[in-house]
Every structure is written in structure tokens, then in C-alpha cells.
User: Fold this.
Amino acid sequence: MPPRTCALCSTNRAMLKRPKTGQQICRECFFYVFETELFKPGDRVAIGASGGKDSTVLAYVMKTLNERYNYGLELFLLSIDEGITGYRDDSLETVKRNQQQYSMPLKILSYDELYGWTMDAIVSQVGRKNNCTFCGVFRRQALDRGASMLGVDHIVTGHNADDIAETVLMNIMRGDIARLGRCTSICTQGEDTIKRSKPFKYAYEKEIVMYAYFKKLDYFSTECIYSPDAYRGHARVFLKDLEAARPSAIIDIIHSGEAFEIREEVKATQKVQQTCKRCGYMSSNDLCKACTLLEGLERGMAQAGITDRGRKKLESEGPAPENLRTIPFYQPPSAGNAAILLEAP
Assistant:
């Protein structure tokens, strides 16, 4: 049987089959469709850089398109150092090489600098079961704070289609209505937060790996040493089983998440968004999740911010001591023109 020709150019030999469209396309057409479905022009943009395949490909593609189409974007690499020995310290070396390879300014903000705790120290207190809760909350706020320090008004991250589908499944399993309603949004922004976008929302993880391989990109591929015990792992295993039976399952789950509608009476029960009285970051309570978690760590009650029982126990201990270590007050950057991401149809 003769080799198939590319479904797009009808000239070159097809090299791969796109999972979400079923098209068999050549390598050059793969590069073209992968690159041109991502974004429209903007101005100052921070790329969340971990050194992994997703953020490395994102940085490479944004630099490539910025130069190819004269978008005039001012691009920055923003890395968060969680303080995980043998993992993040090694991956940051990759980010530093990317800084030289892509000629982009690099900002590194550490948990130790911002919160006074590293993830290694947190895990020594809470164990491996709930450590991802701390890391996820602290990382999100650290990205916003790092972007504010850079004076940008847009953060792009390398979350891919597999990540989004996993998040949809996790929120369903948890019954988390608030997050389920916004987890598939390609762009998100609160009144006091920096705009965030996920350009790879519809890009399968396999495509990103292939792109990095074909382009011979320099990235770090070791998994976080604390992630094997994460709750997300259950959703990931389930999703891979679904994908094996039905390759379009990933994009189907994303579209299902997009189609979810929350009834008005349910919306009315959701907490009103406000700002944390202690650090000024967005919150649905008097104290944001990060401040609650940090107070629990500081007072030797690490579970306080994880469970309702822990939070009530913390409250029963009385007011926080005056010398409690706190997070610096958050000052969001002034509003400006942010890069606009093109959402796939």
C-alpha cells in the first residue's frame, strides 16, 4: 500500500495523525497548524516556565511567531522555585539555558522568598498525601506576584488538552461546582488578578512531545518527586484508559466541560469574590487559601487549611500571634493591553 499524502498540502508524505481531527499530515504542515492556532498579537507577556516540555515548547513557539509575524510582543520567562531538591533545582538549569537560547529576560521567584517555606520543608510537616494542595495554591499566587513584579498584564501557561481534561474529571469527582464552571476557559481574569491564558488548551500532550522531539528542543523530562501521590494521578490513569479506547475522549471531555451550565440558584449559593484582609490577594473568605495554609504551617497545625475540621480547630486556638510570618501585600499591576489569545472554534 503506497504511503498516504498529507491531507493539507496533498504533496508531502503524511508523518502523523492528529488525534483531535483524525487528519494525516506531514511534518511541515504539522508545524504550521500547531503554530498558527495559538494566539493573536498582544504586548507584555510572561510565560510560565518550568523547564518541562509544555512550557519549553510554548516559549519556543511564542518567540518563533513573534519574530515571524512581527507581533511586537515583549516576552518574559517567569519561573517559580518551589524548593524541591533534586527536581526543581535541576529543571531551573534547563530554564536558564532556555533564557540564553531564546534571548528572553528571566524572573525566578521562590516559595522560600515569598512564603518563608520550601516544598521540602512543607512535606516534612504534612507528609506526601496533601502536599500538592499547598504547592498548587502557593504556585498560583506566586505566578501572579512574579508577573506583577515584571510589570506584565498577561500570563500564558503550557497547560495542554490532557491537563484540561484531567481537571474536568477531578472537579466532577470532587463535586467542585465553582472550579468546574471555569476550568475549561482558555482565558481567565479576576478584577484583581492578571489575565491568564492556556494557548495549548486544544493541543494533545502527544503533539507537544512530538513537536519538541522534531525541533530538538532542550527540556527537562523528570517528574516531580512528590507527584506520584497526587490526587490528579487517578484522573490521569482513567483518562489514558479512555484515550486508548477512544482517542477523541480528551477533546470530548473538554467540550463537555465547556457545555456545562450552572443553574442560577446554584450560582447564588457561591461565595462572593473579595480580597484577603491579610495579603490583599483575591479570596472568597476573609483570608485567602494561601494565608490560611501558611498560618497553619507557622502555628504547627499544617492541616488547618486543608480540611474544615482543621480550619475550625485553628479558629478555636484564637487570634494569630502578632509576630506571625505573613505574605507580602499584593499589588496588582496597572491595567493595560494584554495579549489576546485566539480560542479554537
Notes: The two ends are 35 Å apart (CA to CA). The beta strands are 16-17, 24-25, 44-48, 74-81, 106-110, 154-156, 187-188, 195-197, 274-275, 282-283. The chain has three domains: 1-37, 38-267, 274-316. The longest strand covers residues 74-81.
